[in-house]
Structures are given as structure tokens and as C-alpha cells.
Amino acid sequence: MEYTFATLTSSDTASLKALLRVFGEAFEDVETYQGAVPSDAYLQSLLATPTFFVVVARHGEQIVGGLAAYELRKFERERSEIYIYDLAVAREHRRRGVATGAIEELKRIARQRGAYVIFVQADQGDDPAIKLYEGLGTREDVHHFDLRLD
């Protein structure tokens, strides 16, 4: 199967909504990704943000995977790093280079932006993601904490 990869622009809200469906199904969390889909105006504004990137993978016209990432400008040096917030591939398109292709497109963007690294987290027990990322980079074992705002 052949796949194409593209970075979304502010006019691609329909494609971002399609990627949200892929995320919901892939993460088995449809409620989070489909329960309150943002408006086109919100998504258009988000896609216009210069530090937010969405890369989609298409098989023909169908969006079958992709990622959402943020550029984080550092304070200790004049540089930035890119954080992959979400990455998913539809079940029937996994293990065909889709995730790696999306990451390669993000690497191209990161180089253009002058970023020094891309980083990503994987949940314990998500062996396919861990294997993918270990094949592409260096593993660091860290703890993640969510701090409540209430």
C-alpha cells in the first residue's frame, strides 16, 4: 500500500476531524476524541498557530493515521524542541511504515524550525509504541505526573 504524508494548514479542519476519529478508535477512547469535537473556527485557529503541527497519513483520500505535535521554545538556550502529543494509525494500516513516515515528515519540519530534538512519551505496556520509538531514538525512563487544578 502506498501512503502520502502532509502537514495540515488552517484550511484543513475536515482532515483534522478525520484524524480525531482515527485517534479515538486507535486509543479506544472515542468519547475523548469525538464527544465534544471543537468547532471549525477553533480548529482553524489552532492549525494557524505556528507552534502546533499536525501531520496526516493518507491512503488514497482516506486519513489512516497521523500525529499532533507542539514546538516548545526553551529558556535555557535559544533553541526549541518538538513534543509529539498524540500519534496513532488505524488498525488495518499498522506495521506498514505509516507512523515512521509521519515522524519523518515531522523531522523535516523540526529541521526547518531549527529544533534540536523531538520527544514523545509512551504508556507503560504500550509495547508497539515503545518498540517504534526505541527503533527511532534513545529511551529515557521518566515519571509523568498530572497536577490537578481543583
Keywords, separated by commas or semicolons:
25% strand; 150 residues; alpha+beta; globular
Query: How far apart lie the N and C ends?
Result: 48 Å
Overall body shape: globular
Predict the CATH topology. Aminopeptidase
Give the topology string: H per helix, E per strand. Answer: EHHHEEEHEH
**Count of helical stretches:** 5
Q: Report the C-alpha radius of gyration, rounded.
A: 15 Å
Largest sheet: 5 strands, mixed
Q: Tell me what portion of residues adopts beta-strand conformation.
A: 25-35%
CATH architecture: 3-Layer(aba) Sandwich
Average pLDDT number? 93
CATH homologous superfamily placement = Gcn5-related N-acetyltransferase (GNAT)
How many beta-strand runs?
Answer: 5
Give the domain tally: 1
CATH class: Alpha Beta
Going across the biggest sheet, name each strand in turn.
1-2-3-4-5
Q: Helical percent range?
A: 25-40%
**Structural class given helices, strands, pairing?**
alpha+beta
Low-confidence stretches: none
